[in-house]
Every structure is written in structure tokens, then in C-alpha cells.
Amino acid sequence: MTLSRISLPRWLVLSVIVVSLVALVACGASAPEPAPAVPAAGEAPAAASAAPSQPAQPAQPAEPMTRSEPAAAPEPAQPEPQATVSAVVGQGAIGVGAKEATATPAPTAVPAAVAETPAEPAISQLRVSRGPTTRDLADPIAGRGDLPVILPMFEGLVQFDQYTDSVSMLAPEWSANDDFTVWTFKLREGVQFHKDWGEMTAKDVEHTMWQERRNDHFDGRAATWRDLLREVVMPDGPEGHVVELHLNKPEPIMTTYMSTNYTTVIRSKDHWDANGGVMTGFEANDAGIKLMANDPIGTGPYQFAEHAEAQYLRYEQPAVTHWRKTPDFPELRINFVAEPSTQLAQLVTGEVHAAEIPRDLQVGALSRGMVVVLGTTPAIRLVGFFGGNYLPDNPNFDASEPMTIPLVREAMNRAIDRQEINDVFFNGRAELMMQTHSHAKFPGWQPSWLDTFEADYGYDPEKAKAQLAEAGFPEGFEITQLSYPRPGLPEMLDIAELVADYWREIGIEVDFQPVETAVYSSKLRAKEVNNTAWLHTGSFTEPTRAIFVYHYSGARSPRYESPFFTEKYEALEIAATTEERDDLIREMGENCYEVYCSIPLHWVPFEFMINPEIIEEWLTPGVFGVRDFEYVKAVK
Amino acid sequence: MDISRIGASPERAEPIGVGRFIAEARRYPLVPLFVLVALLIVPAIFADLIAPHDPYEVNPRERLTPPAWSGAQYLNGVQVRPEGSWKNILGTDKLGRDVLSRIMHGARYSLSISLLAILAGGVVGSGLGVLAGYFGGLLDHVVMRLVDIFITIPGLLFALVLAIVLGPSFQTIVLVVAVILWPRFARMSRAETLSMRSRDFVSRAKVSGCSDTRVMLRHIFPNVINPLVVLVTLEVGHVILLEATLSFLGAGIPRPIPAWGLLVSDGRDLIVGGNGWWVSLFPGVAILLVVLSMNLSGDWLRDKLDPKLRNR
Fold this sequence. Notes:
- Chain A is an alpha+beta fold.
- Chain A has 18 helices and 25 strands.
- Chain A starts with 7 loop residues before the first helix and ends with a strand.
- In chain B, a hairpin with a 2-residue loop joins strand 1 and strand 2.
């Protein structure tokens, strides 16, 4: 029978079969391969059980308020490589056949004062792919969200090390007066700005503090600085190496604010002045704004080379040997790629050597020999909030709304299966969060939460239903749930949708609305989030800032306000001792815990993937994404 | 002697491949109609009865289960993908929802959006077109310039802007698509009306005292409707694609409603990663088959309704 005589229905059947076969072959429906142990669906591809979900450990001793750098500083402490693959990074490199690489948190590490001998990498340019930055700007005023693309070029007086401990950077010593209103920083001598813009001195710090208060600064912290900073004094003159920051009120965590993690990075005053930059009050002129955007000058291990808008930033080594670290790769290029699948394609084809690959896509890269890198910290704070909890005197506050009632908030917390979220989306690698702004590593930790959390917040949908009934909502109620994308957590939308489903299970009717971040932000600022819940991510940082942002009524857009938080935060602002601060933070944490002020979910380690043929080791906290490029060890 | 055979070469080669398939499909329109019924109409009407699962029922621990016939996938002895199960014939999505059930329920949205949008756009466009063609003059100028303006606006961009301004919802999509469609109906109905209004039967109707409304409704519109019916069938495919595109871009039907475009969008990253190709593929195939079938049916209908083409 000839083909032309086949009747049409058979044609159709044949066509469908052929298309299906092609699709199956193309998509790789693989034959089963025997395996010694077959984990259940949703388990990690490899070494997934390396870090099972577990509560954070007890708090460490508080940081001393005065410190100085040892005369001969050691290299940053790094974990012992234990994986069978060539890359060992962060908490563990997970690759084909990799074993768990357990990182032992090092004591506070201080960068070496003596420059290293430049390495000889296999390639000269390290290429990294990540999502678009928030501002697409090389100027540090872009703010914390864009920190990873700022840090290669700039340095601060203080830095957060791999475990977010404050350690010295451009200031080897610092001290504060008794009431924390005057902070003195001694500057490192001999540090050179890029492109022959001279040595960093006190005048550059003063200039930086003006830049930090610019009206066009994208971080809300510019306003904080304006309130806090009264004067910058240079006891040894502008060319000296000592600065005093005189404050309007006590600030015991000044080293945090002066650190790289807050983008308080030192800019060159000579460069600014010579190119027509002028500050009138807090207003920078056009020449200055363009200068910082097009030719930023810092003291970092890389200097600015090129910026292609919305495409990439390219960096190169400065002409002089860097005082702290000469990167293994003489050049660095960070590509901004929105689509994770494009990032994956770039990684496996060798176009880039590291990329932010979502967990669901990692198998595609693992099978091609790439390796997963975990940050050294649980960098991402995954938390949810209940809208409408404004101060009682706010006209938008409505006490009849269900989510203003603690029992309802408790029920909504109990409806969520945190373990399932961790297993399904994070391969069990995330830490359980006890309370929104607290972590064992930070001040204000309450160890008893570890014992009581399961009883107070554990998954129990039946009890949740009973609590809703007890609160007067036996038939449930309606809420809106907003969901918006967050950097570093591509699973956000799916997790939010799952949480919506948990709530539906206990009778809450959820109108799930994916929106752009700007839409959410404008609603939040306008206090128009009544009867609305949402999930959010933050960074792994000291709790004071989180309390301010999330709970202080004086902040731009607090999520949960109460007179208690307002009173305690204002007391915290003027607290003069470490112990007092610790107690206040703990009190606020306990209050938040008891009234179910939020939905604590997980501390999630940041993950990205590297090409182990190019990169041997990459130690990074992962806060705000792929960063610490100067410490990337090249395969030689 | 069959006059249609005069001049035709007896050895003329039969079309082969895709061309033959299309030619056959035109000759036997029941096949695309069957596809339409099987993939669109029956699921749309009876989804609640025939879908194997609740399309909204999440089951995270069974997320990204492959289609029934797929084996487990291993990487160096470690299972990275479970074996397929007949419980979820076409697999599950990122939240463990059944892909087949979601496609079936998605057909309901695709069909209802198409019908409502075409109804709205068709009624407005055809009405304005007939009015413009019948009365001519200023009304004709105004309507046709409006049509020109709407046709020059890029459809997808316009739809995106409207959808974003009004917020993604079922009603918004219907409105957006109707706004895009009405000029096509207006232009076609006007052209047909122009050719009708000077015909003798229209003149006789007027002379016999029929009102303008009666002339338009009883004498012109029935003669205009054939090409409009063809246009409707062709536009259904277009509307399904447009809805899918808007949903894919996040400006269409909001989650968790299983609109086809949204289903394709949900799994687009997983295609490259290789660990969830089925999430996008099957909704994509459903869109392809339905749109193709709708277009073939439209072509056939046009041939049947056009006297010049009827006997070809």
C-alpha cells in the first residue's frame, strides 16, 4: 500500500505518533537505571540530606565594641575541602558524586594586609550570569540590592566576612565613646584609588558620607544617615588617616552601618572634584551623577571597565597591586540575564562560568558536569506578613479584619507545613526560622524558641480550623494574597501559591494575585494592604535593621506595627550597652513570636552553579547573590 | 464531459507531505472538527466529569512527576526524577497538580473567552460596519477612520497595556480581545454591505416602504453573515493564541486558573533544564492542535459558503 493511499485519519494518527516520538526522544525520557537506593520524589539530586532542616544553633557571644587588627593578619579562614568534585565552596559543593562539604564557621577572619602573588588562571576573564540588577547602575547609591555588582570595585571601612561578622577592611582599628555617639576610625595607609586617583584618606571618608546622604540615593538608609550623622571630623586633617563620626544619637551597631553590606563604600573625593562633581546640600549636580554612573572610582580588587546598559558590567584589575587580594581572574564580566533557562544555556555552553540556576533546573546542569555552590550563610530570609496591622490610630486600621486577631494569625501559621516547603523546594537545606528578625547568630536570640516552636507554630490544620472557629470565623474568610518576584528565590511564586493552598485547606478563601514588585511596594507604602497577606524575602543581617524596616512605625513601609514595637525600637535606638540592646531585641522577638506578628518560614542558603573546569573554589556568604569575586579560586 | 476537467493534466502530481495533509484535511473537515470536539468542546463542557483530578489540587510531594510512560531518571545512581505514574497520565506540574486535568479545565477558559470576545467584538464590529456601509457619508468616515486607527495599533502591545492597566482577569481578557477584534468585523461587514445596498432587491425593499432598520436587518444582514461566520471560525484560533500569549506574558488569566498560556508559561524554564518538559509541552500541543483544527475548519467553511469556491 502506498503512502498516498493512506486515508486521512491514519495520516493524522501517524502524524501524532511521529510528533510524540520526536518529543519524547528530544526531551529525553530515559530508561530506568538501577540505583542502590531510590529516594522519594522531591528529594535532592545529590547530597540533599547534607543539611536537613534544623533550627539554628544557640547564640554566640556578642561582638566587642572596640577592636583592632592583628599585626600580621591571616588569610580568610576557609573550610577544609571534602567533596569528591573539584569545587568545594561555601557550605558544600554539590555535584556529581559529591559528598557533603561541611563548612566550619571560621573565627572572625581578617583579610591579609600583604598582597598575594597574582595567580595564573586557565582563562583571563571570569564570566558570571545573574538576574538583572534593581537599578542597573554602577554607582553605590544603587543600594543594597545591587551590592554584588558594586563590591568588586569598592571597599568599606568595615566588611562582613563569609559569615557576616564585622571585620576590618579599610579601617584596621575603630572605637566608640561610652555612649556610642562618637565613633573613631583609623584608616589603613597606602591604599590607592583606581586609575591613579591617589591614596585614600580622611577626606574621602567625609566625601563618602555626603554621597551616602544624596537625595537620589535609592536606599532608605540615606534618610537614616541624615538623621544620625551630625558631623565628620578629621583630627589629622583631610589628608590624615583618622576620622571621627559624630552622631545625633547613640548607635552601637555603627560598624554594621559602615560596612560594605550597607554599601557604605569609600569613593574618591579628588576624582569627584576634578570632574565637576558638586554637592549642594544633599543634592548632587548632573556632572557628579553622570561621573559616578559612568566612571566609578573605588579601591576594590577590580576597577570599573565598561557598563552596557541592562546587559553587563565589565571589570578589570587595577594597574597597581591591590593591598588586600589580587583576584585569580584578571577580568570579570557580570551578565544580566532575566531568564533562568538562558542562564543555564550560557553555563553549559561555556559562555559563562557561574550562574544563578534555580533549583528546579540544576539537574540539567549537573548532568553536564556543573557543580552547585551553597553560600556560607543562610542568606535569604523567607517570611510572610499579615497586612492591615497598622497602629490603632491609623485611619486605615480596622480591628474587625481577621488578620488583626492574634488567634487568626496563629491559625494561619499552623496551616503551613514548613517541613514540606523545605523538602520540596529547598531539598531540605533551609533552616527553620523561629521568628522574623532573629537568628541564633545575632543579638536578641531566645534559645527557648527551639523547644517551643513545634508546639506553637507546628503544622496542624485541624487545630488551625478550630482556632479560626474560636476566633469567630468558622466558615473562614476572604483575603488577598500578593506575590511578586524576589531576587535569589525563583521558587517564590510557587511557594506562595502553595501557602495559598494551605490556607484554602483551613477554609480561607484566597484571591491569589501575582503582581510586580512596584505594585506591592506602592500598596504597602500607602497602607493599602488591609486583609492582604504576602511572602517576602530579606537578607541575613543584624536584626536592628529588620526590626526597623518590618516593625517600626516610623519606617517607610512597616509590615506589622504596634505601640509596643514603636516604644521598644525607640528605646533600642538610644540603648547604650550591648546587654541592653540584646534584651530589647529579645523582648521584641518574644512579642513577635507570641502575637504571631508574621509568618516565619525559612532561612534559605543562596545557591548558584559553577563550571568546575574553570573554578576550583568559591567561598561566599551569598547575601544578595553571587559575589566575592576576588576570592574565586581558578583552576590552574 | 466534466467541464471542470478541461485543460487539467491527467498526470498532475498529487501534493505530498504537509501540503497533502492540508489538502486532505480540507476535503475531509471532520478530522479537525473531531480534534476540536475532543480537545476543546467536550473538555470545556464536561471537564468536571471527565478530568481525572481536581485541577487545583496541589500535591507538593509529587511535583514534577513525568508522564506515565516515562522512566525514572538517575544521575550517578541518584534518582533525580521519579518514574511516571498512570495516576497522572501527562505528569504533574511544579506543585504536583495533574497536567491533564489542568489542560481539560483550561479548555473551558479558552473556549469561553473565545466565544464571549468574538460575540462582543462581532456584534459591535458588524453592527458598526453595516451601519457605515448602508448610510455612508460622515458616519462611514468616522467608523472607518476608527477602524484604521485600531488596526494600526499593534494588537499584542495594545492588549498588554490594557491588560496591565485594568489588571489581569477573565473579564479583562474578554474586553481586550473584543477591542482588538471589532475592526475586522466592521471592515468586512461594511464591504459586504456596500456591495449589497445597490442591489435591486434592496432598492425594491426601500421602494416598497421598508424602513432602514428593516432593510438592514431583513435584507442586507442575512447576506452579509456568511463571510462573518467564516471570520468567526478563523478568529477563534486567533483568540485562543492571543489569550495564551497574554497569559504566557503574565497579563492574561491570573494564577491559579489553568489557562493554557499560563500552563505553557509555568513550565517554560523546565524545558531547557530537562526535568519537567511535560509541563509546557502538552498544553502547547493542545493549543497547536486546536488552533490548527480551527483554522482548517474555517477554511473549509469558507470554501463551502463561497459560491465561487463551492464546486472546486
